[in-house]
Amino acid sequence: DLDLNLMAGKWRLVYTTAADVLSVLRLQRDTGLIEVGDIFQSFTADGSIENEIRLSVPFLLAPATQGTDGGVALKVEAEYVRVGGRTLKLTFNEARLSEVRISDAVEAVLAPALLPRGNLNHQVLLALRELELRIPLRGAVTAMGGGGGGAAGAAGGGGGSKGGAAVGTYMLSYVDEDVLVGRAGTGGGSFIFKRAAAWWVEE
Questions:
Q1: Among 55-59, 162-166, 192-196, whose mean pLDDT is lowest?
Q2: What phi and psi values does residue 171 have, to the nearest 5 degrees?
Q3: Is-contact 183 168, C-beta < 8 A?
């Protein structure tokens, strides 16, 4: 059976066959319109999941290179309940856009280094850094680890404790201290993660 305490922590995606994730990576490769940074999936042992992808738009946002917090963070919060030895039933609750990091060029336009930064300049930069958009998920959802078609999951009956979108199941095939392997239900694709951080802090 799955050890929920061993699963708990933050995991970095290193390989996937999920169609929606691959489509984002292809968009980066084929058009250069966006940059894709790290993709994470975080678990707690008491039933919470957070999916995160860092994205950037060249020249407008700071580069979203792997291992950095550039660009912008798109996060999806979810809940899970265990319905089998290694199977989780997922309910996505909310999508959040936050942690905006603008490029040096845009910051130079908003607040030129050779001019004193006025109160308005400061307020604009602060507002961008603290920007956070929250979107409740009560209909169709696209999020890593969903059900239905690929990692994209359509709402299917019921809902979580927060009225979220039920999106099928997620089977965790293997987990140890360093590696997690999962598969979204109904042909949703496979995922391989390496541990990025634990929820606890070792003394």
A1: 162-166
A2: -105, 125
A3: no
Rg (CA), the chain: 19
Tens-digit pLDDT profile for residues 64-80: 888 888 899 999 999 99
Residue pair 83/169 in contact (Cβ under 8 Å)? The answer is yes
- Residue 193's Cβ-count burial label (10 Å; 0-12, 13-18, 19+) is buried
Q: Tell me which of 164 and 89 has the higher pLDDT.
A: 89
Place of tokens 């293997």: 174
SS3 readout for 139-154? CCEECCCCCCCCCEEC
Which is it for strands 133-136 and 9-16: parallel, antiparallel or unpaired? Answer: unpaired
Burial 97-115 (b: 16+ CB within 10 A, else e): eebbbbbeeebeeebeeee
* pTM score over 0.85: no
User: Which one-letter DSSP state was computed for residue 76?
Assistant: E
Cβ-contact 189, 174 below 8 angstroms: no
CA-CA distance, 19 to 155, in Å (whole number)?
18
Work out the burial of residue 157: count CB atoms within 10 Å of its CB; fewer than 13 is exposed, 13-18 middle, 19 or more buried: exposed
| Residue matched to tokens 């975080």 | 42
> What is the DSSP track for 36-50?
EEEEEEEE-TTSEEE
Give the pLDDT score at 181: 96
8 A C-beta contact, residue 100 and residue 61: yes
